[in-house]
Amino acid sequence: MRSGNPLRTMVSASKLLAVSVLLLSNAQLLHGQEQDPLKSAIEGRVLQAGSNEPVSGAQFILSPVPAFDGSPPSSSGYRPLLNGPNVFVSNRDGRFVLRNIDPGIYFLAAISEGFAMQCFGAKRPGISGCGTSSVLKLEAGHTTTDVEIHMTRGGVITGRIMDPGGQPLTGMPVDLRRSGYDATGRKSYLTAPIGTVVTNDRGEYRMFGIDPGRYYILARPPLSGTILAVQPGALRVTDTATETTVALASTYALTFYPGVAEIVPDSVIEIQPGSELNGLNFSVQRLPPSKYRIRGRIVDSRPGQPPRSFGYSITPSDEGISVGVRIYYTAADGTFESPPLAPGSYRVRAEISSPVARPQPGEPPPIFPTLYASTSVEVVSADVEGVVVAFSPPVSIGGRLRIEGRDTPALSGLDNTRVRLRTSGGNSPQPAPIKPDGMFSIENASVGNAYDVTLTGLPPDMYVKEVRYGEIDLLAEPLRISGQSPVSINIVIGANGGRVDGVLRDELKTLSAYTQIVLIPDLHRERRDLYKAVTSDATGRFAFRGISPGDYKIFAWEDMDPYAYFDDDFLSQFDSFSVVHISESEQRTLDVKLIQSRPK
């Protein structure tokens, strides 16, 4: 039986951690590497929970504790150290040495094949258990010794994939997936696969080393192996697919356990530490027998642009289900014809490089320095003809920021403030700085995109009071760009936000250090800018500043999936928690109780 370990691909989901994390890029991990006397080191062992048998080959993740004021660390991303010549892993006795680490306060976690991720000092394995991690205070010239990490075997799932007649399907990819949110509150209904395996000749699959949590199993036909390559004046088709992948891709549809086209309550499986769930068998659904094509043309309507070939993709409109994207190419005049498609809603999307001005010193580069154009197409019962996907010139959007109650033309204290347009897909322009008179200009916004308007770098006691685009309230809906417009964005900032100081205690009244505390609006939860998250300090103290007036609830969880507090269903379990009203300029002092782990 073929088997797969989703632990290595767990990295793609681990970016959802509630704290920003630093890869050990500054630490020299080679065995025998000379220790810098101005830096720190860690020595310890990795052992199996219960038996205390050594775990060899474990890799390590070191993450700085976020600052007390809630500001993120200087680096972000949650990535384990990959196997390679410059990486030191635990030896056959489970011992490890991490050298030349910058002094500071850190979380430490270990990952190893067949085991769930384990944070040092955490009560439970897995990412969600890291909320109860102990911290390591690393001092210059000092080696922290006797660090022990006790790892639990990860969960195991097995099953069979069959056709509608009950016959086993060989070579069918099977994904293990989970839903989640990112730091901005955007939900990915189905995140990138935690792990993928392929069924054997009996239709069997097996996955192991799975972190505790709630998951979905998805049987998905492989992408067709047909690649369309551009030749002068024509299309050349290069078929790199195998007979098996072509048959699966052309016959079967995406199917979730227990054999359904869309997720239902029974689709959720709960993985416990070290558990094994067998017999997760299901049949995949067949595609409708009738398939149709989309035909049209991609054009660049910017001045002086001749007809040309474009790369494009055709994907289901349900962006939550990501199964990979294949890039096709149009003919030299921009015309295209899709592969055969089952009835449904699709998005035809094209992209071209669009040079932008180099950022100024200290400015981040654009997130996506590319122009995108797309259109939605509904395929019902016939081929769809005459579809046009048009690139339009990028536009500039001007605006003005003012601080309520201040009439002076020159603004101060906003040197680090930026206005950003964020979009889930497409071009996110360069963040715009605020000029001394409050004016700003956002360049290279894409026509047809919908953007969320956000501000970063506001002084700590300020808050966003109003963002409008003409009559449109941009705090309630996105900015939709249809072309160059004389209308500008107007932003009003409140200078005297509320403040909450407090301490965090567990059920034994013990101060809870280095734990995340979250401030959540009680009513306007669509306003992601109202959410705030900070980390308690060594004495359990915390502070929220720049709070917009309104009603809020304050939470701190011992055990929670990253960013689960954006989920209304998750929060509904805590409806009985008291509401805290914050007025402008008000300062409150509160004791917050840590929410203990639920029985598993």
Concise summary:
By secondary structure, the protein is mainly beta.
Features:
single chain, 600 residues, mainly beta, Immunoglobulin-like, 5 domains, five-stranded antiparallel β-sheet, five-stranded mixed β-sheet, 43 strands, 3% helix, 39% strand, globular
Explain this structure to me?
With 600 residues, the protein is mainly beta. The protein has 5 domains: 8-151, Immunoglobulin-like, CATH 2.60.40.10; 157-283, Immunoglobulin-like; 294-391, Immunoglobulin-like; 395-494, Sandwich (Immunoglobulin-like), CATH 2.60.40.10; 499-593, Immunoglobulins (Immunoglobulin-like), CATH 2.60.40. 34% of the residues are buried.
Please render the helix and strand layout as text:
Blueprint: H1 11-14, E1 40-48, E2 59-64, E3 95-101, E4 104-111, E5 118-119, E6 136-138, E7 143-151, E8 155-162, E9 173-177, E10 180-181, E11 187-188, E12 195-198, E13 204-210, E14 213-219, E15 226-231, E16 234-239, H2 243-251, E17 255-256, E18 269-271, E19 276-277, E20 282-283, E21 294-300, E22 311-316, E23 328-329, E24 335-337, E25 344-353, E26 370-379, E27 384-391, E28 395-403, E29 418-422, E30 432-433, E31 439-445, E32 450-456, E33 463-469, E34 472-473, E35 479-480, E36 489-494, E37 498-505, E38 516-521, E39 532-535, E40 541-547, E41 550-555, H3 568-571, E42 580-582, E43 587-593
Parallel strand pairs: 1-7, 8-19, 8-20, 21-27, 28-36, 37-43
Antiparallel strand pairs: 1-3, 2-4, 4-5, 4-6, 8-13, 9-12, 9-14, 10-11, 14-17, 14-18, 15-16, 21-24, 22-23, 22-25, 25-26, 28-31, 29-30, 29-32, 32-35, 33-34, 33-36, 37-40, 38-39, 38-41, 41-42
